[in-house]
Amino acid sequence: VARETIKIYNAISDGTINLIDK
What we know:
Number of helices: 1
Shape: rod-shaped
Structural class: mainly alpha
Largest sheet: none
Radius of gyration: 10 Å
Distance between the termini: 32 Å
Order of helices and strands: H
Helix content: over 70%
């Protein structure tokens, strides 16, 4: 469960960084 949460959190973080970067 923790690993899945980290995966989702990382995915959201990556998406946010991409939005801000662009």
